[in-house]
Amino acid sequence: MTLDLALQYLVAGLTYGAIYVVVAIGFNIVYSATGIINFAQGEFVMLGGMIAVQASRSMPLPAAIALAVAAAAAVGALVEVAFLRWLRKPTVLRMVVITIGVSILLREGALFLWGEGVRSLPYFTGDEVSSVGILGARISPQVFWVLGTVALIVGALEWFYRRTLLGWEMQACAANKDAASLCGVPVRRLVTLSFAMAAAIGALAGAVVSPITYTSYAAGGPLAIKGFTVAILGGLGNSGGAVAAGLALGVVESFAVSVLPAAYKDVVTLSLLLAVLVVRPSGLFASGEAARLKEF
Amino acid sequence: MNRLLRILALLAFVPVLARAAPEPIKVGALFSVTGPAAFLGAPEARTLEMRVQELNAKGGIAGRPVQLVLKDTGASPEKAVSFARQLIEEEKVFAIIGPSTSGESMAVKALAEEGKTLLLSAAAAEAIVNPVLPHVFKVAPRDSYAVEVLFQRMKKMGITRIGFLSSNTGFGKGGKEQVERLAPQYGITLAVNDVYDKNATDLTAEVTKLKAASVQAILNWSIEPAQSIVVKNARQIGLTVPIFQSHGFANLQYVKAAGSAAEGVIFPASRIVVADQLQAGNPQKPVVEAYRKAYEARYGEDVSTFGGHAWDAFGILVQAIEQVGPDRVKVRAAVENMKGFVGTAGIFNFSPTDHNGLDIGAFELCTVKNGRFAPLGG
Amino acid sequence: MNLLEVIGVSKRFGGVQAVKEVSFRVRKGAVKAVIGPNGAGKTTLFDLLSGFRVPDEGTVRFKGREIHGQAPHQVAAHGISRTFQNLKLFGHMTALENVMVGRHVRSRAGMLAGMLSSPASRREEREIEERARAEMRFLGVEPLSLSPAGSLAYGQQRAVELARALCAEPELLLLDEPAAGLNMRETSELAEQVLRIRDRGVTVLLVEHDMSLVMRISDEVAVLCFGQKIADADPRSVQRNPEVVRVYLGDD
Amino acid sequence: MTRPGLPAPARVALLAVAVVAVQLATQASGRGFYLTQLTMTGYYALVVLGLSLLMGYAGQISLGQAGFFAIGGYAAAFLSTIDVSAQRALPAFALATRMGLLVARPDLYGGTTLGVNPWAGLVLGVGLASGVAFAVGVPVLRLRGHYLAMATLAFGTIVSAVAVGTQRLGAADGISGVPPFPILPGVRIGGGSADRVANYYLAWGLVALAMLLLGNLVRSRTGRALRAIHGAEDAARAMGVDAARMKVRVFVLAAAMAAAAGVLLTHYVGGIGPSEASVMKSVRYVAMVAVGGMGSLWGALSAAAVLEFLSLRGVFGAHDDAVFGGILVLVMLFAPDGILSFRARGIVEKLRGRPARPGEGT
Fold first, then answer.
1. Could you give the 3-state DSSP secondary structure of residue D97?
2. Which of A294, B76, B221, C32 could bridge D275 with an S-S bond, Cβ 3.0-4.6 Å?
3. Could you give the count of Cα atoms lying within 13 Å of D264 in the half-sphere of its Cβ?
4. Do residues B42 and B152 both lie within one domain?
5. Domain of A284?
């Protein structure tokens, strides 16, 4: 395993990892605001890619991506308002099953609208073959767009939650909904906002990643499973943990491919998820006590 | 009195009416229009619907319209069996076209035989027609021909050490079995023989493994988007060795997806994909061009080899019925002995021992030149 | 003879010392109360006794056998039954079924016997139902037997929960703030019921705020403050204990 | 009796009458071929009944039921299609043949193969699934809510990934050519149209048996304990219910039922593919339990009978998954206790603005 090969595996792993991080962040945003796992998060990443590709046919790339992000945010908000907001004291089980149903409807809707074909945005810089050499490893420029976007998203979220009033309100809502509403925090609107934000972030990632991974109507499902594996590993609601866990999982998967047949890569990831769920449902980084007190 | 006469006249007239509206020939179809193999079944279903409408517009077969009973199996064998039984026992279809995948074809094979119903499978696996069952045929070329054409070219290019990747689908598995079986005969060693997941979104790690094994060429066998990803990732990490693909790559959609990375990729294809560049004398030219023009005009998307299977299956069935009339036993025998049927996948010469009817000539090596398919000369 | 002995039991949650070296005993056939201001550690103590929490130190002995650290269902098997401060009934099931579940620890029919509806299991079912109806009659709530527990009035739900606990024929009955939310009439009714339960030979340990109820039915009263026991005697002397007065009424 | 409505045996008699009536109706109307889909529906109903007990009564969600179905199915398919005639002479194999563990069978192409006796396949298949269910259940059932949902989803996906990734299990093509299962003299699971009526009665006979056993169980001490766990787990434990062990036992029972259905349906269909282990299949089973009503065996049975039959008839066409997704959402939104328990009383209360109390599941 020479240096350039190791670097190549590392970069590949970071690319996979970056995708998982964004999906996991989408889960965390919704989880911390509502206490449920939105199984349709993978579908928002797919929608981002599909809408962006459709829009890019009639407008410049940045505009198409912006449209995709806005449209997905609207769909995210609609899902919350139409399916979840008006439920009276719903059990977690009931809400989770609803999001599973919604993810199926979004996927079948995409099939109906765009067919089963595969599509992708053109490369933002260079094309399919161009690559940048670093210490012998060659990396497609699109990878930097992906890593850059994910870093931007994580940074923006940190700033949002730390620095803005709305961000604090969201955290208050996440910590204790009733207390927050007593202090005048518009809890219902914030929950809708959290769905819209999660959808928007997922869509942005879906668009940026599509040149590398292509998008098809069924791309959401496998992404969702990887996404919540990382969300659990990092500790539900703990986005910092998700970034670390996501990148780590990506790199582990990448190096695992150099050893065992790739088809079993998913079995490794899923067994890891099962193990963490059973041993430390609160994830590797969060404190066990904090998670147990959180009602679920 | 005259009321009685009028009734009698009416009665006399009815049988004539009955004859005037001929009873349709029911043709069943099992395609995986949705689900994991949608990119196989969807074009096949669209092609078959188009051909049936065209044929009925021209009066059907010997005056009798064709009624298509199409079922979407979603690539699951249990649905294929349930629908096959409906087609055979209820609808009593004259013949069944499909299924799209090998797994489903193996599941319904015995049913077709027991129900004495002609089955024209669109899947590639050898085991569908080997050992032979009287009523079971397949119109997709054998994987082994595609592999042999590739290995012959590799031998000519002096390549002996390749990295082989395949996806964990029926298509990938079919190719993998033939590659593993035929490689030794052509003195080719598989430095890497790896299977990746069909939902793979990035295969950089895979191709890095090939770089580490310093292979002389890459051979990939899959029909999902992964086949374009492999080509891109290989070129991105600076692998300049020649890349060979399966006949699944003969779909312009994936070439466009791979973009400039697809330049120079070598793959076996039925002549449908290079229709416009076939010499005038080539017998397949009119057939493939007719299919391409009709399909692209009607659906506005590139034609695919898999859609071609449905075109060929229906063509074989219609020709047989036209030859011997709508009699199950005679039509089966007609198909079994049909020679020289020009289809999109090649020229079919069936026989009681060969229910596939295609030979290695079905494939022609092609490559990609500035984004277009072109026959690989020399 | 002491039915229950609690010796030096402590429990800490992170920084909070909920219960600190508490020791007391409950005589067989007596009614013992544990009182104390909110946050005194009463409910934590109850959870320690009934197996929902494991003490950091100390031992709990029931009829001479150590039971601390055992799971709730094992504690129940020893003959200790309990009610809950915030009323944990099985909302979907009828009141009668709720009470019948109380009989679980005293019955044996397994999954297989249940599926085959064996004669033994059918006979046991009739016994369980009869026993449950008897307990509901004992508390005067039998007319409610077929209505869903979730739809009953608060007082009725309390009675059903008590009937459920009694249905297990416990030797020791733990009552977690049984009078919470009851009006005057219902509280005096409860007092009657507890005394009748004691007369049936059931030892009762209750945690309660309602001083009038405690004074009226308890043979002994222990007082907890910030997790520590500050008094343990008959009701009269506890009332006059200066330490207790200071804690409750504050220094004037 | 404590529960309104007829005792289990009486209801099962009604079911038996209905089963016979349906068969006679299809015969009279010349639609005997419906029995094929009805038979398959019967086996799938077994999975739904097991899940109804686990999810509806004990309140434990499982998104991995298709995984257990596939373990049973693949075990039966693998064992009944391997050909060990080459090792026939070896002492162990000779002994096994004498014991009837191995049976010779003509294959489709006139040759004879020596494969494992389907009864051994059934026992091994169900045993393996139960073992896996125990191993997975003990740790996983300590979880609740979406953690449990995700853990079972992960388990199901692992089974699917292994099925698709393993060459000996036919990878993506699955295993075909599974012989019929001679279960009684003259009656075999599988085979062609001649065996159709016998297969129908066999499948629905099993469903009736399951309804009887589960019907008794639900009304028994164990059934009450399960519903108590669903209602308030802590209270149930305080009443002496060993919740952890009870949940695992029901999880294993549901898995065994799913595996048995997997074995029998694989013999009936003559093969099994990785699609049987897919997440979407598990979601469909959950949808059918949800439609039937959480905690209603009869609701689950009717939902399974109707939805699975229509799906197998291809009535939903290319929108099969969309229909189940839509149903899942609608039921969970408007009738969380299932359509059947959405009785007039529930509607009246909704109109009067008071929240409908959770309907009492039968």
1. helix
2. B76
3. 25
4. no
5. 3-293
Burial B21-53 (b: 16+ CB within 10 A, else e): eeeebebbbbbbbbbbbbbbbbbbbbbbebbbe
Q: Report phi then psi at A162, rounded to 5.
A: -85, -40
Contacts of D235 in chain C (CB under 8 A): 84, 88-90
Best residue of A3, A7, A8, A269 to probe chain B, by most B CBs closer than 10 Å: A8
Contact D172 B125 (CB under 8 A): no
Per-residue pLDDT of chain B (378 residues; tens, 9 = 90+): 456 666 665 555 554 444 556 788 999 999 999 888 888 899 999 999 999 999 999 888 888 899 999 999 988 889 999 999 999 988 899 999 999 998 899 999 988 998 999 999 999 888 899 889 999 999 988 888 889 999 999 999 999 999 999 988 888 888 999 999 999 999 999 999 988 888 777 788 888 888 888 899 999 998 877 888 888 888 888 888 999 999 888 877 788 888 888 888 999 888 777 777 777 778 888 888 888 889 989 988 888 888 899 999 999 999 999 999 889 999 999 999 999 998 888 889 999 999 998 888 888 888 988 888 888 875
Of all helices (H) and strands (E), which one includes residue B269? strand B266-269
CB contacts of D216 in chain C (<8 Å) are 114-117
Interchain CB distance below 8 Å, A8 and B208:
yes
In chain D, which residue's Cα lies nearest the Cα of C99?
D239
Beta strands C57-62; C65-66: pairing state: antiparallel
Residue D61 contacts A, CB cutoff 8 Å = yes
- Cβ neighbours of D280 in A, within 8 Å: 104
Range of the domain at B228: 144-269
N- to C-terminal Cα separation, chain C: 41
Strand locations in chain C, DSSP E? Answer: 2-13, 16-27, 31-35, 57-62, 65-66, 80-82, 172-176, 203-207, 220-225, 228-233
Does some domain include residue B314?
yes
Domains: count for chain B: 2
Q: Is the dihedral of CA B324, B328, B329, B335 positive or negative?
A: positive
Q: What domains does chain C contain, in order, with CATH numbers?
A: 1-79+170-252 (3.40.50.300), 91-168 (no CATH)
Residues B180 and B84 in one domain: no
Q: What is the CATH number of the domain that holds B192?
A: 3.40.50.2300
- Which pTM was predicted? 0.89
Of the candidates D187, D197, D145, which has an alpha carbon nearest to the alpha carbon of residue D19?
D197
A274·D151 Cβ contact <8 A? yes
